[in-house]
Amino acid sequence: MDWATLNTNIKKWVRVMRSIVQVYLVSEKSLNDQIFGEESSVTCFVDTVKAPVMQLLNFGEAVSLGPRQPEKLLRILEMYELASELLPEIDVLFSDSQLGSSLRGEYREVMRRLGNARRRSSSSKALLLLMSPLILSLEERSTRHELRHELPHGAGRTSARLLTRFSWSMMMWNISQYHHRQMLSIRDGG
């Protein structure tokens, strides 16, 4: 699947997953409780919602198992944060039965895989590929003070939330050192 299609599908997944958990599942559980009573509604509820929930989880798993691409980092992070945010609601909705326990387990597994994919996508090689033009311009000017002018509009605010100044500086230093070694290796034919 090309990046544009995947990006669109991930955005849809985030919207749908939030709606399914916070609206559809809550309403369905309430309706089952009203019709069947709390004791017998659990099995009916889980049987009713299992297929759509598993379909959503399968997409999340597929994204997490896909190839490492630096451009996927923000979308995977968005998916992971949503899964973490919805976890307490999933735990409450599926806390009553063995079937519910298996769905909770599947949800946690997909969340774990998204977390692993997030870590893989943010590896130094992925960041190097993503930030390569920035590093080249920094090396040409041999100054780090120009960094904020080289970032895309709004990226400074985002990065400020995600990284402290120290970790940002260390990351940039490590990436520039890695990039420098790579360039020497290419120049020397190694």
UniProtKB/TrEMBL annotation:
Main function: Component of the exocyst complex.
| Superkingdom to which the source organism belongs | Eukaryota
GO CC annotation, single: exocyst
Q: What processes in GO biological process is this protein linked to?
A: exocytosis; protein transport
The protein in question is named: Exocyst subunit Exo70 family protein
- Similarity remark: Belongs to the EXO70 family.
Span of domain Exocyst complex subunit Exo70 C-terminal: 11-120
The secretion signal range is: none
